[in-house]
Every structure is written in structure tokens, then in C-alpha cells.
Amino acid sequence: MSTQEPLYSKDAAEALTQRERANQRVQGRIQLVLDRLGKCESFLDIGCGSGQYLRAVAAHGVTHVVGIDESPDRLAEARRACPHAELHKARADSLPFSDQSFDVVLAAQVLHEIYLFGQPDELPRVFREIQRVLKPKGRLIALDHLDPGAERVRVRLSSQARWQLDYFVQRYKFSTVSFQEHPDGTLWLSRRDLQDFVTKIWSFGTAVEDLEMRETHCPFGREQIEALLREARLTLTEWLAFEEISEDLKDYGIELVEGASWPRKFLLVAQR
Predict the structure, then answer these.
(1) Which residue, of 3, 26, 68, 239, has the fewest CB within 10 Å?
(2) What is the CATH number of the domain that holds 114?
């Protein structure tokens, strides 16, 4: 698996790093992870990206901080963010570590990429590898996108947001986006289409746009994740749904006219 080309080109890696640094919600996600570290002397970040979690965990007092990523460009960013971290170019389905090496393994915003762009059986292998490298009673902390389901909602878009939606409909390659226009100018569309649209606007015109247009931000339901945990002999101890979609809608001038807001991300803790 390690011979595969990295998912992110150099330009795409730089664009994603800029996004991570500018996104104010990242700090909230990092705090959620720090709040759940507990007793931790050894920490592994799978898909460590720009190294923000590594830096925060090291500053929190964890002595052995390790990150892996398949992208040399992302690893270079992680090195700048956390100079003393131990970094490896590797993939999550074949971790270059001995059994029972870590107190905590973090998978932040990486499971959906493995699921969508990896081999058909790659994600279950990743969970088994995580279980293998965790110490007894060690913990997996994962956070990622959450599938909101196909229920339809009605929204009112600003003129700019309507232009952005039309652009998204034309460019999105993962699935066909459909909506129904109400006589008053509001639109009916599925939660999934709305979530994918509003969480990808930031990528328009950047080097990461093509990749974003080939993946969904609605990949997992809780049952699917719980099944993967059971197969890997990991016990779910906490599940948190967070980051209301209404926050993103407000950012882009979109009003939710009918239908309730929903959390678009999940965080879980599972124990070996």
C-alpha cells in the first residue's frame, strides 16, 4: 500500500494547510481531543497533516508524540508545527510500529478519505491495525464527518450562495445533486446535498477543489462505525455528535426555512 501516490499533490497539501490554519473551528476540535487524552505518555496521529494536533498534544505534556502521513508535503508541514515529533511516511493499514505501542491513537478527518479513496477492504484493516498498536486499555479517538441522512429541508440562499450552488452542482462528481425550487425562491434539497455543498464552498478555486468534488462529507452513520469497532475488538465508550450545520449556513448567507439543524461531525472514544 505504501507505494501508492499520495492523495494530495504539493499544491493541494498547501491549500489544505492554509484552510486548517484559518478555520476557527479546528481549535474547538483540538480541545475536544485534549479533554479526552487522560493518562497518555505515547500518542499516534494517523494522517497527521499539518501537525496541529501533534503540537497541541505535545504542549499538553505528552512525551512521545508520533505522526504518520502518506504525503511528504504534509509531513513537512507537521515537522514545522511540531519539530520534536517522530514522523513517518506511512499508510494507516500498515502501521510501522510494534504491537501495543501507544496509549492513544488519533484519527482526525482521515477515516472518510480511507473509506472513499482506499481499497474496498482498507478501512477494516486500518481499525485492526489501530487495535494492534494500542496498549491494553489504550484508546482510539476519532472524529470525522457524519451522515445526516436523506431527509429534505427548505433553505433560502443569498444571491452569492445561489451562484455557488449552481457552480457546485456543475462541478460535483461524487453524486448528482438535485433540488426543487419553491415559488417563493426557496429551495428543497436533501440534508446530504446541502451538507456537501456548504462544507465545500471554501475549496472553490483552490488546488484542492478537484479532490473535494470527488468525495462526500456524508460518509458515515453511527451503525457503520460501531460495526467496524466491533470487528476490530474495540469497545465504544463515548459518542459525541457536534458542530451544527446552522453555523455553516450562517457563514454563507443561507437560511434554514423548514427543517431542523443537525450536527455534521462525530467524535468517538473506543478502548482496546
Answers:
(1) 3
(2) 3.40.50.150
> The whole model's pTM is what?
0.93
* Interatomic CA distance for residues 224 and 228, integer angstroms: 7
**Looking at residues 161-176, what average pLDDT do you find?**
97
Q: Are 19 and 49 in contact (CB under 8 A)?
A: no
Given a contact cutoff of 8 angstroms between Cβ atoms, the answer to whether 93 and 118 are in contact is: yes
Hey, how many other C-beta atoms are within 10 angstroms of the C-beta on 96? 12
Q: Are strands 102-108 and 42-46 parallel, antiparallel or unpaired?
A: parallel
Strand partners, 145: 265
Task: Spell out the residues 6+ positions from residue 207 whose beta carbon is closer than 8 angstroms to its own.
Answer: 9, 11, 12, 14, 15
User: Is residue 126 in a domain?
Assistant: yes
Is 225 a domain residue? yes
pLDDT by residue (tens digit) across 27-47? 999 999 999 999 999 999 999
Q: Tens digits of per-residue pLDDT, 113-138?
A: 999 999 989 999 999 999 999 999 99
Question: Can you state the percent helix, strand and coil of the chain, rounding each to 5?
Answer: 40, 25, 35
The answer for residues whose C-beta is within 8 angstroms of residue 17's C-beta and 6 or more apart is 49, 50, 74, 77
Contacts 24+ apart (CB under 8 A), 170-173: 171/209, 171/213, 172/196, 172/197, 172/200, 172/213, 173/213, 173/214
Residue 179 maps to a domain: no
